[in-house]
Write a structure and sequence with these properties.
Two copies of one chain form a homodimer.
Chain A (H helix, E strand, L loop, with lengths): L2 E14 L2 H5 L4 H19 L5 E6 L2 E6 L9 H16 L14 E15 L5 E5 L1 H11 L6 E4 H10 L2 E11 L3 E11 L2
Parallel strand pairs in A: 4-6
Antiparallel strand pairs in A: 1-3, 1-4, 2-3, 4-5, 6-8, 7-8
Helix pairs in contact in A: 2-3
Bound molecules: manganese (II) ion (2 copies).
The site of one manganese (II) ion (MN) has 3 residues of chain A, from helix 2.
Chain lengths: 190, 190
């Protein structure tokens, strides 16, 4: 099995807010149709940036930049550009249970060292490992509807490239890591 | 996208007890090595029964019988035979963090109608949908270390085939379903 370390990469996690209640009254065909429509929109969007889809599990996405090919200092800004379009595109997708309303997504991004490897021989999966994955996942779970929460490591790389407006959220508590200062990714300047 | 309904199938979910604490002190290479070793053992075991691996995500397995090919009345008993060997094989795998100890697995099985479909075009996944999936997942999450919890629907089909010793657990509360009577799968008779 091939295991590779990426010294610097960025990871994006997202989920659809209230997916359980959105799909509670749907039959499986309606759920599959909804997910395929959602994936179609998002997968096309990912193609437009220097990013790659690692996996989508039900309503959750994991998208990387700088993996499986290093891209220098571009990964944080490429992933943040993608993230803002991800929110925008999602907010145009109608709820299958209440078609007059649209879905909302919450997302998080973190930057750091990531180990990637193929796990399993029967149904081989390209998987990411390491502390950066856990922290990126926490940036998502502690985000808010319609928001992208980014870590200070991601913010630092963004600031080197310039072009984004962020807003300090203040410290949040992350299990096993203590208090981390995080930021909201608000917009990309024209 | 092809969507198919299986009127009667059985689903098995499992997880490694305490996987978070087992892997907390490991580096990513050690985690990948552990998972690949675990998957090797389990995937070989699955091959010996009329079952198929749907997915493994980290330490969690989803295994089906009667999907993607219907197998009449065999699915409950085939999956239960597999489940008992899954527990046995797992209990011989050493903890990577404490090699003098072995891992423990908890598992659950439910039987019912399942909808299967390929979701996504970019990284297509064979996914299962419907209430049976949720209930099977709850049989796992409310199981106990070293145990396989089965629903009364699975138990009913097992009893038709015969050959297994089960033990009533009594009712457990499942969100959205109320109280369900469940059973421990204890052993298969020679
Ligand atoms: Mn495309
Ligand atoms: Mn094999």
């Amino acid at each position: 099995d091939v295991i590779e370390t990426f010294e610097s990469a960025s990871l994006f996690f997202s989920s659809v807010v209230g997916f359980g209640s959105i799909t509670r009254g749907l039959n499986p065909f309606e759920v599959i149709t909804f997910l395929n429509g959602f994936y179609d929109v998002i997968d096309d969007l990912i193609d437009q940036y220097d990013c790659s889809k690692v996996e989508s599990i039900s309503d959750s996405y994991l998208i990387a930049s700088g993996i499986p090919r290093s891209n220098g200092e571009r990964h944080a800004s490429q992933l943040c550009s993608m993230a803002l379009m991800f929110l925008k595109a999602s907010s145009a997708i109608h709820r299958p249970d209440q078609p007059s309303q649209t879905i909302q997504v919450k997302a998080g991004i973190h930057t750091g060292t990531v180990v990637a490897g193929i796990v399993g021989s029967k149904l081989p999966r390209y998987c990411l490992f390491g502390d950066t994955v856990n922290t990126a996942s926490r940036m998502q779970s502690q985000s808010l509807p319609g928001k992208v929460q980014i870590s200070s490591e991601t913010k630092l790389m963004l600031d080197v490239m310039g072009g984004f407006i962020t807003e300090e959220r203040g410290p949040i508590y992350i299990k096993g890591k203590g208090r981390l200062n995080t930021f909201w990714l608000n917009e990309e300047m024209e």
